């Protein structure tokens, strides 16, 4: 760990690792007493006190007195991740760019959604991100330390250098997004696939917390992406492109045409909007429209049922391959399932091998609209060596 973006090494690798260990414990687990940190790390009390003191002095954590609980004896101070160490999380989409300032305590200090009637280039996206950061630095984030930037892109991102190889819905091919944003802002930048980062966030903080084998599918304006967690670790593949469930060929009851088509072409947010008579909608608006039409509009019910049938078989195929304990659905995919969760779970189990479906849980993403931003923030904190 080096530079202003992370606790200082001071030439002592063991100490640097212990500093990072404590910081990660309070980042992932929330506020903890010094006594809890002593137990979790196996270090002695004086060492923990010394490490916490350094982190406090450098502004990475804050200490406070514990809430009164009627205990006898001197209470152990509570250590919290600092809310004034932030990264900028970015999620460009076909209809808008969402930008947020996420602090080390996982709070979202600021959020801005900038809608667009036309697709923005990678260059225009970098300029817009830089403009927002500059404005925030002069206003709401004055006095905060900006650690870096994490970007969740709906497309294939090369893990080695953050090159966006192909984001078809954005029209980006071999876009050097990381370099563009770094040049515009002067901050360290990390770029990843949006669904893979959503999977990471739900695994660490959301519906799949505590589960080590997870499949995550996200349905958004740009189609269907996915992420995979195996034995507690994200699976990226050799280039970082793993998890593209939306590109799998499907042929299931209710699928259109004589030939197989890709999943995201038939299980589609755009198709739901069309049958609802909507041009555009954010997730809350779409969810409300689907709920309102669920008992009155036969065409909406029929389209929703058709998409559920195809989605259930696609998930069953993934369950046969990966044997997860949890499948998490985000975006409009969760909305499809919420109208009949038990029926959907039965359909998945019927399409999968019985042994692979034993104990399987199918859950909606619990982080809602925050999942991609929190995933992007986690990527940024990790990439610059903070946690």
From TrEMBL:
The keyword Ligase does not apply. InterPro entries: ATPase_NBD (IPR043129), ROK (IPR000600), WH-like_DNA-bd_sf (IPR036388), WH_DNA-bd_sf (IPR036390). Keywords: Kinase, Transferase. GO terms for molecular function: kinase activity. Belongs to the ROK (NagC/XylR) family. This is Putative NBD/HSP70 family sugar kinase. It comes from Microbacterium saperdae.
